[in-house]
């Protein structure tokens, strides 16, 4: 297919050309040479904690890439400012949450006009949350972030008696969080400083100690520690250590303050250990030993635990219960049966009700069961495609839970729902200060035929007056990994594209759980290429149905969705006018061969283990974007990276862009933007993040020829 693209990048300076320093590697008798392996800093662990340690040669190269990117995007400077102003204008700057009741108080967050970071506050339980005089400020994120290039809060968790709170922060983007303890009455921090944590902690009921996870030198949460307030971190007691580097670990608490949960899991196997808060010095008790491919999660239910699991062939999950005093697998009893095609996503329990969030026919549902009578009902919604968020409650003995609702045209709404009376109370509707009329827009869901006959859902947003004759530009977003479902939710930012005549589309491709657990399984390991083919099928269908044309589609994805971007660029470069790849996981084979990297061993169940298996090596080698770059008619590509990103390390997109320039110098251009003071999530402030989105959208608009 001949490729005809708009000549939107002209008179560019010469791009940076990276040195080639070949490094050979042979696995399973298969030899490869990587000319850009040198871009992986040998001191990456230390550099993530102190970016000033970056090798000067690497720093010069990244700065040269940034300069080239700025030159290529210089003509969009005014557009970026306009987009930013539009996006900022849709945000209520002094917005605040509806506080969640917990004991004598209700806790919430708020922003001030111009503020980047949230403020945490509390009010008396029954006070009017709109009355600012009743608010007691607990933590001012803007104050804590002052003078720092990057700052991300990990929340504020209070003790049962409401005296103290644990709060955490990351000031480098490396996701090593420091924990502090704040006296919530005085507002002063105690001397305790807990470093290199996963972020957040779980209080013991007496408020004198808490539990947290420690990140090891390879950025893995491998240990749970018990910290006693007033003691140095060096004296913290090791509660549990996970020796298998292939597993993540987290620590959590129960609404009843009766147990500490230690959750060990990878992407397909899980295991829980329980520590009774009646004896904090005891050894955690194993619930059910890990079995490959079996997942379970637990929530308290008074005298029972409720267990969500896929055990026994329950691919779309079922809910079991077990006595608190004997929660082992032998005592599990079915409460909610497995129903093929009805995926139970999460569950929670309260004194009189069991609640779960499920996905059926591609749409989320909240289902409530009366624990005594067994009667069930679902909360109903009218729109054809929508998004739900289940917040639940901070208290166990309650009939009222909280959930959020939105669609691609309906701003987010927050409800309290009485599970006994079925009364739904609207607490808040997302304000769009600059104005928003849902009737000006259309949201649709279409089904794109895939290469094997499956139907791929695609959610669409566009203005009613957008011509559907193939002339409209389209931003097509995809992810497709880890079973993550991309909701058809309201995005004020996407309106900036829709208002410029774009069709904004989300492809719900395999690798996610949009159509159940089987949809996930069909897009991982040896079936990974289904994910990429589904995305291309979505593009084909949008063109066939005249929503857009190949010359007008800009593809976008981030992280594992960035791998998707690299793969579709290799497979069908002629079908896209441009590609935006944010923190893209594109060097898949090299990363999965490096078991020192933070996420590699836990990721093997998702992608395969090329260290141990020649078959899995060949799977990955067949699609790994970096390894399959060739002399193809690539569209303009924008890659975004964070220097201290522990998830997708900066060298992945850096190597990818270098190889694209080498193998296809006459295509592109290829732009790399490295944030030298941030990690995986980009800049941390709410308006700083808008600047990044405005930059990405400016690229899409430029490539579409709409500037």
Task: Name some characteristics of this structure.
single chain; 707 residues; alpha+beta; Rossmann fold; 4-stranded antiparallel sheet; 13 helices
Please provide a written account of the structure.
Among the domains are: 45-88 and 440-585 and 618-704, Alpha/Beta hydrolase fold, catalytic domain (Rossmann fold, 3-Layer(aba) Sandwich), CATH 3.40.50.1820; 587-617, no CATH class. It is built from 13 helices and 38 strands. The two termini are 27 Å apart. Helix 5 (494-498) links the parallel strand 33 (474-478) and strand 34. The model has no long low-confidence stretch (mean pLDDT 94). It is of the alpha+beta class. The strands form nine sheets. The chain has an eight-stranded mixed β-sheet with strand order 31-32-34-33-35-36-37-38, sandwiched between helices. A four-stranded antiparallel β-sheet has the order 3-4-5-6. The longest helix is centred in the C-terminal third of the chain and has 18 residues, at 686-703. It is globular, with a radius of gyration of 25 Å.
Mean pLDDT: 94
Number of DSSP helices? 13
- The whole-angstrom Rg is 25 Å
What is the helical fraction, as a range of percent? 10-25%
- Strand proportion, as a percent range, falls in 25-35%
**CATH class bucket of the domain at 45-88 and 440-585 and 618-704:** Alpha Beta
**Annotated CATH topology of the domain at 45-88 and 440-585 and 618-704:** Rossmann fold
Main-sheet strand order equals 31-32-34-33-35-36-37-38
Shape, principal axes of CA atoms: globular
Give the biggest sheet: 8 strands, mixed
In whole angstroms, how far apart are the ends?
A: 27 Å
Q: What would CATH call the architecture of the domain at 45-88 and 440-585 and 618-704?
A: 3-Layer(aba) Sandwich
- Low-confidence segments: none
The class by helix and strand makeup works out as alpha+beta
Strand segment count: 38
> CATH H-level name of the domain at 45-88 and 440-585 and 618-704... which superfamily?
Alpha/Beta hydrolase fold, catalytic domain
Enzyme class: hydrolase
Domain Peptidase S9A N-terminal: 15-429
EC number: 3.4.21.83
GO molecular function, one term: serine-type endopeptidase activity
């Amino acid at each position: 297919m001949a490729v005809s693209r708009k000549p939107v990048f002209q008179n560019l300076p010469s791009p940076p050309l990276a040195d080639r320093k070949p490094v050979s590697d042979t696995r399973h008798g298969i030899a490869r040479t990587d000319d850009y392996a040198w871009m992986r800093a040998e001191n990456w662990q230390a550099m993530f904690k102190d970016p000033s340690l970056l090798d000067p040669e690497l720093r010069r190269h990244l700065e040269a890439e940034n300069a080239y990117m700025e030159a290529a995007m210089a003509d969009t400077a005014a557009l970026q400012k306009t987009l930013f102003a539009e996006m900022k204008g849709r945000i209520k700057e002094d917005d605040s949450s509806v506080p969640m009741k917990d004991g004598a108080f209700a806790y919430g967050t708020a922003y001030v006009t111009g503020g980047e970071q949230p403020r945490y506050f509390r009010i008396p339980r029954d006070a009017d949350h709109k009355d600012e005089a009743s608010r007691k400020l607990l933590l001012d994120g803007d104050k804590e972030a002052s003078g720092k290039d990057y700052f991300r809060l990990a929340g504020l968790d209070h003790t049962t008696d409401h005296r103290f709170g644990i709060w955490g922060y990351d000031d480098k983007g490396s996701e090593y969080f420091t924990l502090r303890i704040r006296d919530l009455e005085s507002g002063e921090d105690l001397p305790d400083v807990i470093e290199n944590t996963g972020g957040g902690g779980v209080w013991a009921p007496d408020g004198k100690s808490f539990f947290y996870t420690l990140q090891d030198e390879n950025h893995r949460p491998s240990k749970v520690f018990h910290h006693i307030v007033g003691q140095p971190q060096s004296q913290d007691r090791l509660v549990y250590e996970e020796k298998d580097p292939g597993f993540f670990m987290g620590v959590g608490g129960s609404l009843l303050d009766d147990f500490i949960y230690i959750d060990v899991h990878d992407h397909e196997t899980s295991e829980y250990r329980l520590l009774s808060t009646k004896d904090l010095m005891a050894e955690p008790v194993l619930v059910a030993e890990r079995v490959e491919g079996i997942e379970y999660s637990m929530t308290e239910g008074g005298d029972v635990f409720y267990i969500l699991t896929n055990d026994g062939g329950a691919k779309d999950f079922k809910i079991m219960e077990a006595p608190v005093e004997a929660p082992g697998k032998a005592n599990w009893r079915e409460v909610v049966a497995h129903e093929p095609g009805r995926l139970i996503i999460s569950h929670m329990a309260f004194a009189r009700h069991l609640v779960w969030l499920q996905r059926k026919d591609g749409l989320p549902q909240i289902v409530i069961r009366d624990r005594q009578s067994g009667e069930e009902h679902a909360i109903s919604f009218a729109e054809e495609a929508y998004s739900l968020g289940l917040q639940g409650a901070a208290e166990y003995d309650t009939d009222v839970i909280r959930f959020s609702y939105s669609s691609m045209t309906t701003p987010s709404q927050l409800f309290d729902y009485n599970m006994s009376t079925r009364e739904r109370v609207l607490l808040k509707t997302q304000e769009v200060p600059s104005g928003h009329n849902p009737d000006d827009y259309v949201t649709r869901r279409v089904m794109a035929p895939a290469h094997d006959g499956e139907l791929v859902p695609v959610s669409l947003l566009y203005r009613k007056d957008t011509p559907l004759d193939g002339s409209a530009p389209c931003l097509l977003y995809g992810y497709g990994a880890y079973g993550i479902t991309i909701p058809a939710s309201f995005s004020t930012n996407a309106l900036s594209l829709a208002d410029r005549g774009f069709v904004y589309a989300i492809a719900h491709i395999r690798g996610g759980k949009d159509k159940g657990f089987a949809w996930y399984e069909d897009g991982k390991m040896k079936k990974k290429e289904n994910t990429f083919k589904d995305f291309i099928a979505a593009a084909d269908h949008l063109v066939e149905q005249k929503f857009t044309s190949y010359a007008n589609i800009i593809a976008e994805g981030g992280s594992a969705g960035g791998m998707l971007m690299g793969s579709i660029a290799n497979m069908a470069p002629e079908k896209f006018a441009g590609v935006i790849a944010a923190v893209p996981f594109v060097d898949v084979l090299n990363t999965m061969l490096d078991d020192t990297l933070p996420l590699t061993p836990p990721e093997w169940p998702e992608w395969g283990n090329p260290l141990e298996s020649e078959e899995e090596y060949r799977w990955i080698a067949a699609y790994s974007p970096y390894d399959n770059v060739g002399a193809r008619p690539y569209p303009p590509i924008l890659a975004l990276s964070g220097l201290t990103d522990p998830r997708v390390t900066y060298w992945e997109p850096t190597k990818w862009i270098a190889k694209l320039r080498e193998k296809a110098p006459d295509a592109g251009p290829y732009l790399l933007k490295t944030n030298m003071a941030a990690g995986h999530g980009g800049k941390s402030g709410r308006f700083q993040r808008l600047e990044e989105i405005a930059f990405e959208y400016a690229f899409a608009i430029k490539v579409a020829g709409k500037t």
